[in-house]
Design a protein that fits this description.
The protein is mainly α. The chain has seven helices and no strands. It folds into two domains: 87 residues, Uncharacterised protein YqeY/AIM41, N-terminal domain (Hypothetical Protein Yqey, Chain: A, domain1, Orthogonal Bundle), CATH 1.10.1510.10; 51 residues, Orthogonal Bundle (Arc Repressor Mutant, subunit A), CATH 1.10.10. The longest helix has 24 residues.
């Protein structure tokens, strides 16, 4: 289980005295506990729920990195990037743009979508296939492009 793996990594980071990993892993555990409290979960979370929590954290990191880049703060960009790397080790591998494009094309063929009016139908079918492995904004852009709604 992913939650157990995170706790084991925390112990390992303590032994290694890896401050960056230690900090990120503690935040991850804290976010998981907060999710449990908010959703009244007793015991361990499923790997899917843990992944959901970690994806939200990763999104926040990416947004922070983007903001720091715009603000001209390379020191903070580097810090956030190294922390995101630690977090990303626990997330499923992202799909490549080519893989996402292939899934979009397949769903368009299956649904018979032909125009921008079919955008919602295609998105509804594609998102469960890419859940947690591709950014929804990227998927939306690809669907719009394929349907000529860009």
């Amino acid at each position: 289980m992913l939650e157990i793996e995170i706790n084991a990594s925390l112990k390992n980071a303590m032994k290694q005295k890896d401050q960056v990993s230690l900090s990120v892993l503690r935040m991850m555990i804290s976010e998981i506990k907060n999710y449990k409290i908010a959703n009244l979960v007793k015991g361990d979370l499923s790997d899917g729920d843990v992944t959901l929590v970690l994806q939200k954290m990763a999104k926040k990191y990416r947004e922070s990195i983007e903001s720091f880049e715009k603000g001209g703060r390379p020191d903070l960009v580097e810090k956030e990037t190294s922390e995101l790397r630690v977090l990303s080790a626990f997330l499923p591998q992202d799909l490549t743009n080519i893989e996402v494009e292939g899934l979009v094309q397949k769903v368009i063929g299956e649904t018979g979508a032909t125009s921008a009016a079919d955008l919602a139908v295609v998105m509804k079918a594609v998102m469960p296939l890419v859940k947690g492995r591709a950014d929804g904004k990227l998927v939306n852009e690809m669907v719009r492009k394929k349907l000529g709604a860009a």
